[in-house]
Specification:
Length: 151
Amino acid sequence: MGCYINTDTGEYPITFSELRKLLPNVSFSKEPKEIQAYRRVEDGPTAVFDGYTQYVTEGKPYLLDGVYVRNWVVSDHSKITLNENAERNLNAKKGAVRKKRNRLLAATDWAVLPDVNTSSDMLEYRQALRDIPQQSSFPWEISWPELSNPV
């Protein structure tokens, strides 16, 4: 169902249900394109925007070749919003790296059981995994340790 604009007052959006209530003495067989001071607003071109630095809101419709068309307004996010997005991305990346690190640690938990003779290579590997969050490029570039001798 479409939305309508009151061409006399500029009121927008008006739903078809609201239009029926505004015009109780009018019989509607289907959604009209135009009735009294109300005109249906058609979909216009979609907005092109960068979802990271910009957002889209709906503005007042505009008249194009005798037809009212939806108007999309592209605006820049505030620096606060950008910082919030950057922080969310950073936290998501940190979480993904820690998840991989924890998976690698869990895969070698058997090596530190009391009845296992743990090699120094294994102990160094596990410590290097635990030290990943202290790497200077964490979480963007990780120098993943390699286990040369698992036993």
